[in-house]
Each structure stands twice: as structure tokens, then as C-alpha cells.
Amino acid sequence: MVLGLLTFLGGVAILGYTFQLALQMFGTPPAQALGVEAGKDINYNTAQTNLAGILIRIVLLLVMGAVGSWIANRGANLIAASAHRADGPKNDA
């Protein structure tokens, strides 16, 4: 039961951290994230590099969310399995 609860809470912590990173990342204005400044010429190499970094971070957020969900699901399954523990076969004979 304790192991299941710790596993579940670990998965929820990973999900919480993932949502915190996503909020921070998506709260950044696009011009700042791409390194584009108003009134100046656009450096396409810098913007392209920054865009690639953003796409990699989005993929990592998706992976972190999937792993956190999987871990939390395993913890919930461990809790459910310990709550419905079988005492062995019951024979009335």
C-alpha cells in the first residue's frame, strides 16, 4: 500500500513539474522565445535555432507527461491491488 502511494505521488509530482514547465514555456511571448526584436532585421538563423529548441522542448513535455501518467497509473494499480488482496481460496468443505 505504501509503495503504491509513493509511486502514485511520484507520478503526480512529475506531472505537476511538467505542467509548471509548460506554463513557464507557453507564458513567454513568441517574439522573445524566437529572439526577434522589434525594429531590427530578423536573423533567420537565430530564429530557426530557437524554433527548433522550442519544438524539442514541446516533445520533451509530451514525453514527461506520458511518463508521469504511466507512473501515476502504476501507483494507482498497486493501491487497488493491495486494497483487494486475495486471502487465498476459500473452501466451505
Helix/strand layout:
Layout: H1 2-26, H2 30-34, H3 44-83
Describe this structure in words.
It is built from 3 helices and no strands. With 93 residues, the chain is mostly helical. Helix 1 packs antiparallel against helix 3. The longest helix is centred in the last third of the chain and has 40 residues, at 44-83. The protein is rod-shaped and about 85 Å long.
Task: Throw out a few tags for this protein.
rod-shaped; 3 helices; single chain; 93 residues; mainly alpha
Mean pLDDT: 88
Could you give a short account of the major beta sheet? none
DSSP strand content: under 5%
Number of domains: 1
User: Structural class, from helix and strand content?
Assistant: mainly alpha
Q: Which runs of at least 5 residues are low in confidence (pLDDT < 50)?
A: none
